[in-house]
Amino acid sequence: MTAASRPAGARTLQVGVCGLGVAFSHIAAATRRDSGIVFAAAADVRPAALDAFRRDFGGRVYDDFESLCLDPDIDIIYIATPNQQHAGQAILAASCGKHVVVDKPLALNVAECEAMNRAAAENGVLLACGHLHSYGPAVRAMRRLIASGKLGALRMISTWHFNEWAYRPRAAWEFVPGNGGNVVFNQGAHQVDIVRLLGGGMVRSVRGTVGRWDAERPVEGAYSAFLDFDDGATATLVYNGYAHFDTAELTSWIGEMPRNPEWNPAARKRLAALTAGGSEDVAKESWRFGSASRLAGETEADPHVLFGLTVVSCERGDIRQSPRGITVYRDDSVETIPVANDTNYSSAALENLYDAVVCGKPVLRDGRWGEATIEVLEAIMTSSQTRSEIYLAHQVAGIE
Ligand SMILES: NC(=O)c1ccc[n+]([C@@H]2O[C@H](COP(=O)([O-])OP(=O)(O)OC[C@H]3O[C@@H](n4cnc5c(N)ncnc54)[C@H](O)[C@@H]3O)[C@@H](O)[C@H]2O)c1
């Protein structure tokens, strides 16, 4: 059942949001009012954000997370706070009997993920990973075609994302080492998630290298990684956020949002102008929930969002995601198969959790899935430090 098909009179689930920042501005815009999801309460430490929530949703507001967890009418807690708070908050929410969605990345390391999954299991609640591009309909269509076997066995996944990520405004917490503010935890959370879904989920080993190439931006802004799956398929992942080449040039100027040839060359100047006379966190404020504006030129994409360029190679053909669906390259033909753009990756986790709670459907990206992705991200960092291959032990298969 998709959110649009909820029958009149269907049950609603009350969601309490913790963290009304940039992530929630995307979620609030994407969640349909007829989805069965009601944003009924919120917690934040910024009074202005709580005022905006009360104005937009008419919900209850709290200036501390525990009070939100103790709200008896809340069914689901959505955690969109800084990464370093995810584990503790998810465990507290679960211990209060709430189902939990945690925005990406699920946590900072595998040990935190294990504790979160344990808390969910012990309290009989569901734990889901939020805001992941693998919920996207075109990514899922690619996985379905791979799994059908029509193109023969999967052999290789190649994914590239070049953009201006390193020059987007950051909150102070994102520059603190260990908080997962780097490109691996922030963006690899998406890229690894997509690649694991396409490859079936079971990664055997990882070799990775991360790069911090601009002293003015003190977090890693680039990486490359090689993933070897259990069944012998491989994946190469490349991410470069240093605002030179733009992969969108190869994808009709569509990325996570519409892009243009001037976007990367202007990135450094744009950041300097945004931060002039104020802190970088103040610049980020203009993107947060309740603020008046988003960055000029940034609107939600109408076609499918594209997280860079991803090409899947099977024995008898290649597949790539294209703006309106997927394009399939066979021995003797090239065909673009349209895919309905009926799921927004920002709201998909909540819609899926509704289906799980109300209709008994599986959680597509559950806490164990998130733990396995975090294991790959940690392995990229460790492999880069040690210049060695890292073998994995927490992998699980994906559900398309
Ligand atoms: N920025 C994005 O586009 C985006 C997209 C998807 C996911 N995410 C993820 O969402 C999370 C938040 O990122 P963001 O960019 O929105 O950050 P942000 O700094 O814009 O927002 C964080 C929010 O959490 C609030 N907060 C901090 N501590 C709190 C506490 N103890 N209790 C209640 N509220 C608290 C802050 O006041 C702020 O409103 C991160 O895990 C990030 O990876 C971000």
Question: Could you please describe the fold and organization of this structure?
Answer:
With 400 residues, this protein is of the alpha/beta class. It contains twelve helices and 15 strands. The protein has two domains: 3-133 and 345-365, 3-Layer(aba) Sandwich (Rossmann fold), CATH 3.40.50; 136-343 and 376-391, Dihydrodipicolinate Reductase, domain 2. A nine-stranded mixed beta sheet has the order 14-13-12-11-7-10-9-8-15. The protein has a six-stranded parallel beta sheet with strand order 3-2-1-4-5-6, sandwiched between helices. Strand 9 (222-229) and strand 10 (234-240) form a beta hairpin. The longest helix is centred in the C-terminal third of the chain and has 20 residues, at 367-386. The chain is globular and about 60 Å long. The two termini are 15 Å apart. Residues 293-301 have low confidence and may be disordered.
